[in-house]
Design brief:
about 75% helix
Length: about 140
């Protein structure tokens, strides 16, 4: 199994896959926020709107993290989203399932994305070596 990074920049395929995971996760978190608000209102709790806005904030943070995946701080932000999704299970226990699915997808895309990026880099370097020197290099 490849090394699982927590910081740094990612290859093009990897960050695209992780951004898709975070974007999808943001939508599900938004639905979880609505569930938290509805449950709190049904129980007569005073914090229903606070729970909604916390969930919306986490969903927006997930969308922002998806957009920042190509930057060095995008990966740590994505890991933070994963952790906060698990923490949200304190309020909405169904978020345990969301955490399992999306953390699993996160890890799968992180590992397999790195493998695909390595294969693409190897193919590109092999293609560059197979074509030989360019006209400019041969003229030197």
């Amino acid at each position: 199994m490849s090394r699982i990074p927590f910081t740094g920049t990612l290859g093009k395929f990897t960050w695209r896959m992780l951004a898709m995971v975070l974007g999808s996760q943001g939508l599900v978190i938004l639905l979880g926020a609505l569930l938290a608000r509805s449950t709190a209102l049904a129980e007569g709790a005073d914090n229903a709107h606070t729970l909604l806005w916390l969930g919306v904030g986490l969903a927006v943070l997930s969308f922002v993290a998806a957009g920042m995946m190509r930057r060095p701080f995008g990966l740590p932000l994505g890991w933070l989203i994963q952790a906060l999704t698990w923490v949200s299970a304190i309020v909405v226990p169904a978020m345990i399932g969301v955490g399992l699915v999306f953390t699993g997808l996160w890890l799968l895309c992180l590992v397999k994305g790195q493998q695909v990026d390595a294969m693409v880099a190897a193919r590109e370097s092999g293609a560059a070596e197979a074509t030989g020197p360019t006209d400019a290099e041969a003229a030197r």
